[in-house]
Amino acid sequence: MIAEEPRVDAAKVTELAQSLESELARLIVGQKALVRDTVIALIAGGHVLLEGVPGLGKTVLVRSLGQVLSMSFSRIQFTPDLMPADIVGTNVIGDEAGRREFHYQAGPIFANLVLADEINRATPKTQSALLEAMQERTVTVGTQTRPLPSPFFVLATQNPIELEGTYPLPEAQLDRFFFKVLVPFPGERDLLEIARRTTGESTPQLRAVADAQTVLAAQRVAREVPIAEHVLLYAARLIGATHPDRTELDSVRRYVRWGASPRGLQTVVLAAKVRALLEGRYNVAFDDLSAVAQPALRHRIFLQFEAEADGVTADRLISEILEHTAKEPARA
Amino acid sequence: MAEAPGSAKDMNSLEAIIRELGGAAARARAARYAVHALVAALAWVALVLVIARLTPFEQRALVAAIGIPVVLAIAALAWLIRRPSAAVLMRLADFQLGLKERLSTAWERRTESGPMDAVQRRDALQQAAGARLGTAFPVRVNRGEASLVAVLAIFSLALALLPNPMDQVLAQRQADRLSQERATRAVQNVQKKIADSTKPTPVDPQVQKILQDAAAKIRQADSPRKALESITPAEQKLQQLTDPGTPALNSSAQNLANALSSTAAGRSAAQAISSSPAKGAQSVRDLASQLQNLSPQDRDELAKALAKASQQAQNGQMRDSLSKASASLKSGDTSSAAQGLNDVASQLDSLQQQENTDQAVASAINGLEAARQELASQADRDAKGQGAQATAGASASPGASPGAGASASGSGSGNGNGNGTGNGNGTGTGTGTGTGTGTGSGTGNGGTGGTGGSGSGTGSGSAAQSTERVYVPGQPVPGQSQNDPTPLGPGQDVPLSPYTQVIQAYQQAALDATDQSLIPGSERDLVRQYFSQLGEQSAAGPK
């Protein structure tokens, strides 16, 4: 009986993911990879940094996710004058039973789903307030620490253009995002479909397919997916290969300043576990690692100036690493 | 508790998969290793055959044949040792069948009982059931390797079937070894003969040592030519064991026998001396003991004979003893005369000893000569095998060779000292006149240190004919001195001289050698007859 229980849970996770994806697909045209990566991060319990030019549906995605998950949703528009208290809340003086007392007024971060729109427009101080909450999943105001609701899922967006007056996220804070997902411009067919769906008389109404408890259960199950030693070794090799002092790739030695952190390895493995479940499998495969390597590592590899000058991106380097890192069966 | 039967069943299924994969992998690897082994074996055979074409390689077939089972054994051993483990089999099956690491994960966690392990195992087994596991390890031969096998096989076959220029060298080596073995055996036979001799001499150990060394050198020599080089020094060492005074003493003894044969008292002693020096010594001692009983006339007659023998004696001690005996007998001092005759008897005993020594030495030299003949014949055959080009080159120069039928007269001078039974070699040169150039060689007869010996040498010139093929090994080629100490290098022919240039010198040397009092006349006639026949043959036409 013990063995049967996870089977049901694993199947449920698969079902949950499929439901989420199909429901979101009703509103989000194309962007399957974006949706898939977002769902993976959600089930893995990580936060996502979405990067794309305005108008590609980032905000729609997060809002839609809030609808289909039947969870509390907050949106915070980051601006230069945004203060930390605007995010985490503050103590305000109130009149209670004739006595003036400080009352804590919770900020918008107290929600299951938080959209941090254009996160790079806020000052580092404000960014730090959010990022600390992301990592600790608690908020400390004054002397009191308050836990954030669970599940807690932040989707931050940033615009790769219009960088004037922005505050790029520092490396240490970037590392706290589980995935960095690039939002591509849709193809022609997708554009037509977007036009049809959004300019008609009515827009599709999404239904809730899961709640917080379901997501939490799915997060627990995902961590139980087994991974074989040689597959885990491959993941470790991938991470090692991103470091210029450990890799055998000339391009990495030349262009990379810092490689991925151990948190990158955790991310890759956990994301691969979720992906295995979404694929209807109960073990991690090499393909799972390869599939999640880009979103999990691209914001954890810090390039030299020379890379920027030569037009070399982290994605390209990760592709090279995936291509050249040997898998165990090939060696055998 | 409900999990246990299921887990056991899963385990059995996983082990069944391992067995099936193991069998398939073993077959696939066996095919691969067999081809590897075939490539290695054929490469080995080709390598051996190529080497055998570059250098003489006697055991090439054996070495090539041994390499094949060795390579196969190594391949089998490697196949056995490098069997993949169950984990590797599972990983490879995952990889080949696209099972997304299901089998390897299930196998690795077969003993785990985590929340999802049982589900994962069942999923893996379900996926494996739908796959053809045997196809994970197909029995496949690499096309490039198969082509290599074909190329190597054709190459090896061609090498094996096409004539190998080294075969001739090998055959020659074999013949050389046999020849050296026969020559060694000839020397060993002489050793045995000397050891078994009923007349041991003091020099026997030295003779045995010389023969033993010579036999060892002959056996160990690289070629018959090299082996031949060891014979002459051995012969010279043997010659040094002989007493150079023996001929003189022998001559004196014969003169004594001749002188005594004309006397009544000494006739029996003369016969005994002629028979053998030992018997002669005993007879002379008997005569000495009977001197007092002789009549004055017999004594006088005996004294004269002794005086005559004394005058003819070439040996100083013998002359003194005979002179003393003769003088004492004339003066009537029989005891002193008896003493003189006893001294003569001692000289005869000494002569007997020396003759025994000489006989042993001569026997040893004969053995060495037999070995020389054997080796020279083989060296001659070797030279013929190698000399085809040299002959052709010589005939390409018409000015150097006289026309057929041209004759040249040569004059030669021989040098040699010796007497008695000594053997010596002399050299002579002859210069042809007329249309050809002749070379002459003379052979002297003599021993070392001979005094008063006469050497004779004859030289004869003969026209070298372009078609002449008969050579005598051991003679210097024109332009090379016989005593040239320069050793022959590899590939150089043994020194050869045309047969016609040396036959007369050989004849003269043989006649000189037989011109010994100890050799019966009938034997000398045989030698003369032999060389006469040879001379007729050489005059009749080219050999």
Q: Taking all residues together, what is the mean pLDDT of chain B? A: 76
- Cα separation of the termini of chain B: 110 Å
Q: What overall geometry of chain A do the principal axes of the alpha carbons give?
A: globular
Q: Greatest interface and its residue counts? A: A-B, 28 and 28 residues
Total domain modules of chain A? 2
Largest sheet composition of chain B: 2 strands, antiparallel
Instruction: Compute the number of structural domains of chain B.
Output: 3
Number of helices of chain A: 15
Q: Low-confidence parts of chain B lasting 5 or more residues at pLDDT below 50?
A: 1-5, 387-493
Task: Tell me the β content of chain B.
Answer: under 5%
- Distance from N terminus to C terminus of chain A (CA atoms, Å) equals 37 Å
Beta-strand percent range of chain A: 15-25%
Mean pLDDT of chain A: 89
Rg from alpha-carbon coordinates of chain A: 21 Å
Helix content of chain A: 40-55%
Number of helices of chain B: 19
Describe the protein.
The complex is a heterodimer of chains A (332) and B (543). By secondary structure, chain A is α/β, with parallel strands linked by helices. Chain A has two domains: 4-82 and 109-218, Rossmann fold (3-Layer(aba) Sandwich), CATH 3.40.50.300; 225-331, Orthogonal Bundle (Helicase, Ruva Protein, domain 3). Helices cover 48% and strands 16% of the residues of chain A. Chain A has helices at 4-25, 32-44, 58-69, 84-88, 124-136, 171-174, 188-198, 212-222, 229-241, 250-255, 262-278, 286-297, 305-310, 314-324, 328-331; strands spanning 48-51, 73-77, 89-96, 99-106, 113-117, 138-141, 144-147, 153-158, 179-182, 256-258, 302-303. Chain A has a five-stranded parallel beta sheet. In chain A, helix 2 (32-44) crosses helix 11 (262-278). Residues 1-8 of chain A have low confidence and may be disordered. Chain B is mainly α. Chain B has three domains: 3-161, no CATH class; 170-386, no CATH class; 397-540, no CATH class. Chain B has helices at residues 3-54, 60-81, 86-97, 102-108, 117-129, 143-161, 166-195, 204-220, 224-229, 231-241, 246-261, 267-275, 277-289, 296-312, 316-331, 334-386, 388-395, 499-514, 521-540; strands at residues 412-413, 458-459, 471-473, 496-498. In chain B, the strands form two sheets. In chain B, strands 1-2 form a two-stranded antiparallel sheet. In chain B, strands 3-4 form a two-stranded antiparallel sheet. In chain B, helix 11 (246-261) packs across helix 16. Chain B is rod-shaped, with a radius of gyration of 44 Å. The N and C termini of chain B lie far apart (110 Å). The model of chain B is unreliable at 1-5 and 387-493 (pLDDT under 50). The chains are: A alpha/beta (332), B mainly alpha (543).
